[in-house]
Specification:
Strand content: 25-35%
Helix content: 10-25%
Largest sheet: 7 strands, mixed
Structural class: alpha+beta
Order of helices and strands: EHEEEEEEEEEEHEEEEEEEEHHHEH
Shape: globular
Number of helices: 6
Strand order of the largest sheet: 1-20-16-17-14-11-12
Length: 422
């Protein structure tokens, strides 16, 4: 039931803080400042190995990325010695205008000089302050936007935070009384066991269970005697305001609702969320039931657990092993047909399959990844022939058994967790 990836990229609307975040770089040179002039349509993500041709094409004129406190970054792309001295990287803080969030203020942060290493142009910088912020970048050479090649752009991130985390299961409404064949305690136990089984590159310390009606400030909004339908009981399908549960730190918040209002959707999360502190993008949402065209059906405990494992992979920056048309269409980059990891095979039939249609009913500002269960009869090919079908990040839930994550996926998960403040 991992259907499509809702990835509507409206990168300009997300401001993480008003505090200034400085970069440690080489001394400032007297270089003309060139602000992004392309609308900042595309975003870079740390440790993302997808092809990202659109990011490469827009690198000189403007990209956005989320800079985390105390994280060190390496931006690189293929060099061309015939272009002379490498361009200067210019960094800008991005903040929406208070009166109109469709427009932004750009504040210069720093210039960063390049090094040439093994045929790559490489920039290193560190974000020092205590908050996360959206930053934009441009490349400047001889007073103009750099016009040389910028192929195979990569943003590598290394964080200063722990490779440990906990889980916080938040039960919303009366879903506990409506579970089919198991209890919340049973689910919590299997969640903890399964996270420890699959997420072997990090340490899962513990799992907390909390009930939304007992939230110290929001509890009255979530009565315990009524079902909660994400997207109908609230417009926010991820129930993000419950993220950052008071008194619990270093935990990923997993919200369990009755069901999600979109048909066939088992769960949601943001891709490359970057937020374990509460609010926007800070939760993984799960349904105990699934809404279908002919009714609402209970999910097995195994389905809920596997959805949590899959959606958490997206939260920490894992794409689908093979992209659907929805993934590609909403990301706006036709080159991203796979996740880029050498040890996760790509299934081209996923892209060709006609059922991977695009949804337009989500009003969310970033990549949102739903997990969707579909019947095998809907597919125009035998999914069992896909070599990545047993990977937990395969785009569809096909009632199969999963081998887990690959070694490269596990390494990326750990690296990205350590970037996120927690």
């Amino acid at each position: 039931m991992k259907k499509k990836c809702k990835n509507v990229l409206n990168v300009l609307l997300m401001a993480m803080s008003a505090m200034f975040c400085a970069c440690i770089t080489e001394p400032e040179e007297k270089i003309k400042t060139l602000y992004p002039d392309n609308g900042l349509r595309f975003r870079l993500y740390p440790n993302d190995l997808a092809k990202n041709d659109s990011a490469s094409a827009n690198l000189a004129h403007g990209l956005v990325f989320l800079a985390h406190p105390n994280a060190s970054y390496e931006l690189s792309f293929d060099g061309d010695s015939s272009m002379g001295k490498p361009p200067t990287l210019q960094l800008f803080r991005v903040k929406p205008m208070p009166s109109d969030e469709s427009h932004v203020n750009l504040t210069k942060v720093k210039n960063v000089s390049a090094k040439e290493i093994d045929g790559r142009i490489v920039y290193h910088f560190v974000c020092e302050k205590s908050v996360s912020e959206n930053w934009a970048l441009t490349l400047v050479q001889d007073g103009s936007y750099y016009e040389g090649p910028t192929n195979n752009v990569r943003l590598k991130g290394e964080g200063a935070y722990s490779d440990h985390m906990s889980l916080n299961l938040i039960v919303v409404g009366n879903v506990a009384s409506r579970l089919s064949g198991f209890t919340i305690d049973d689910l919590a136990r299997d969640l903890l066991d399964s996270y420890r089984k699959f997420y072997t590159s990090i340490q899962i310390d513990t799992l907390y269970v909390n009930y939304a009606n007992l939230h110290p400030t929001l509890g009255s909004k979530y009565p315990a005697d009524e079902p909660w339908y994400a997207g109908w009981s609230s417009n926010d399908k991820l129930v993000s305001e419950l993220g950052g549960w008071p008194g619990i730190v270093n935990a990923l918040d997993i919200v369990l609702v009755d069901y999600i209002i979109d048909e066939d959707v088992l769960g949601y999360s943001y891709l490359f969320s970057g937020n374990m502190g509460g609010g926007y993008g800070s939760t993984v949402a799960l349904g105990a039931f699934v809404k279908k065209s002919d009714g609402v059906y209970p999910l097995e405990k195994k389905e809920i657990v596997e959805t949590a494992i899959h959606e958490t992979g997206h939260f920490f920056g894992l794409r689908h092993t093979s992209s659907t048309r929805t993934d590609i269409g909403e990301g706006g980059d036709l080159s991203n047909r796979e996740d880029g990891f050498e040890d996760t095979p790509y299934c081209p039939e996923i892209w060709l399959n006609s059922m991977a249609k695009r949804r337009s009913d989500l009003n969310i500002d970033d990549f949102v990844m739903p997990r969707i269960k579909i019947a095998t009869s809907v597919l125009s090919f035998d999914y069992r022939k896909c070599m990545d079908a047993d990977n937990i990040m395969f785009p569809y839930d096909m009632y199969g058994e999963y081998s887990g994550f690959s070694e490269l996926q596990l390494a990326a998960l750990r690296a990205t967790l350590m970037i996120y403040p927690h």
